[in-house]
Structures are given as C-alpha cells and as structure tokens.
C-alpha cells in the first residue's frame, strides 16, 4: 500500500511547497506509526540526517550535554535549580549563570535611551520602540544577558559608544551604533574578536 503522498500531486518540491500544510499533516500522521527509536534506526540505515526532539526531562539527562558541562546548578528561593549555562567560554570572562530569573513583579529598568555622551546620572528608561539602549562603558544589559567586558573593550576601541539590544524571548540580538555609522565597524570587530579569543576546549 502506497502512502497517500506517493502520487503526482506531491511529485516535485514546488508542488509540495504549495500545499506544505497538507504534506506536514501526512508526515505527522505517518510518524505516529513507529517509536522515535524505530524511526532513528530506519533513518540511519537510509542515511537520512535526523535527531530526536528532547523533552525538558530528557534534555537535562542528555549524556553529551552533561559531559561538556552545559548545565549549571544555582540557588533560588525555590531550592537548587539547574539552568543551561553560557554556551561560549572565554579565558578572562568565562561567564556563568549569576542566579535565577527574576520573580514576577516590577523590575527596575536597566536600559536607557541616553547615549554615552549624555549625563550618566540621568534616570534610565526603556525605549518606547522596544529597543534597549545602554552606554557601552556602563556595561550593557539586555534581558539579563551581560555583554562581556572584552566585547565592550573592542567596541570602545573602534569608537562604538552605544549598544542597542532588541529584547527577544529566545535570544538577545545586539546592534551597534557609532555616531550613526557603527555598522561599518562590525567586520573589523569580528575579525579582532576571533583572533583574540581562545577556542573552546572539548570535553
């Protein structure tokens, strides 16, 4: 018996893309017919790249992630808790999980729309556009993720005075400005950073 998509209607990538929701629905229905282990065995036999989607419990028990020391245990008001650690290691600023996430409630704003040239004593306020702007020399913080001092030093050396952070639930994207011309410094900063930082050791 042929699967329902083994017909001319789904013969090409273009045809499948036009009805991708239907294709995903058929694939999801088929995937329920075997266990994850059975599918992975079949995919390896057919040389199809695949990896399981871990549950939170399975993720924390992953042998590889524990072997490389990705997770950290910190104290919290609710007891000892495990968190994903900083995925990049630096010699002088290795980074660590400083503590648990803040509890629900008012949080003092750490971002300012003021540039480095503005009065450092001015009250910090979040930008109405959703951008968080902080002086590079003050040490930028966006969504609780610190910008490493080494990066700040490189920015300052290139004349970058202000960092713009876009809050995102999964990742903090950092943008630069140096007198509205900061983007042209990014390739040079990247090259210098790569040349000065050590390679992360493998466990």
Automatic annotation (TrEMBL):
<dbReference type="InterPro" id="IPR050483">
    <property type="entry name" value="CoA-transferase_III_domain"/>
</dbReference>
<protein>
    <submittedName>
        <fullName>Acetyl-CoA C-acyltransferase domain protein</fullName>
        <ecNumber>2.3.1.16</ecNumber>
    </submittedName>
</protein>
<dbReference type="InterPro" id="IPR023606">
    <property type="entry name" value="CoA-Trfase_III_dom_1_sf"/>
</dbReference>
<dbReference type="GO" id="GO:0008410">
    <property type="term" value="F:CoA-transferase activity"/>
</dbReference>
<dbReference type="InterPro" id="IPR044855">
    <property type="entry name" value="CoA-Trfase_III_dom3_sf"/>
</dbReference>
<dbReference type="GO" id="GO:0003988">
    <property type="term" value="F:acetyl-CoA C-acyltransferase activity"/>
</dbReference>
<dbReference type="InterPro" id="IPR003673">
    <property type="entry name" value="CoA-Trfase_fam_III"/>
</dbReference>
<keyword id="KW-0012">Acyltransferase</keyword>
<feature type="region of interest" description="Disordered">
    <location>
        <begin position="100"/>
        <end position="125"/>
    </location>
</feature>
<keyword id="KW-0808">Transferase</keyword>
<dbReference type="Pfam" id="PF02515">
    <property type="entry name" value="CoA_transf_3"/>
</dbReference>
């Amino acid at each position: 018996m042929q699967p329902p998509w083994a017909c001319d209607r789904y013969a090409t990538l273009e045809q499948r893309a036009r009805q991708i929701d239907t294709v995903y629905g058929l694939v999801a229905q088929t995937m329920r017919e075997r266990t994850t282990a059975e599918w992975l065995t079949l995919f390896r036999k057919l040389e199809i790249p695949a990896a399981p989607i871990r549950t939170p419990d399975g993720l924390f028990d992953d042998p590889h992630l524990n072997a490389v020391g990705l997770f950290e245990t910190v104290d919290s008001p609710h007891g000892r808790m495990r968190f994903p650690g900083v995925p990049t290691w630096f010699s002088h600023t290795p980074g660590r999980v400083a503590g648990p996430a803040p509890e629900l409630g008012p949080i003092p704003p750490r971002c300012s729309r003021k540039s480095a040239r503005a009065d450092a004593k001015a009250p910090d306020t979040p930008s109405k556009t959703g951008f968080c702007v902080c002086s590079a020399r003050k040490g930028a913080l966006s969504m609780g993720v610190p910008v490493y001092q080494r990066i700040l030093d490189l920015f300052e050396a290139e004349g970058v005075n202000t960092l713009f952070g876009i809050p995102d639930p999964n990742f903090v994207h950092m943008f630069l400005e140096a007198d509205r011309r900061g983007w042209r410094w990014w390739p040079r900063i990247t090259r210098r950073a790569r040349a000065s930082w050590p390679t992360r050791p493998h466990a």
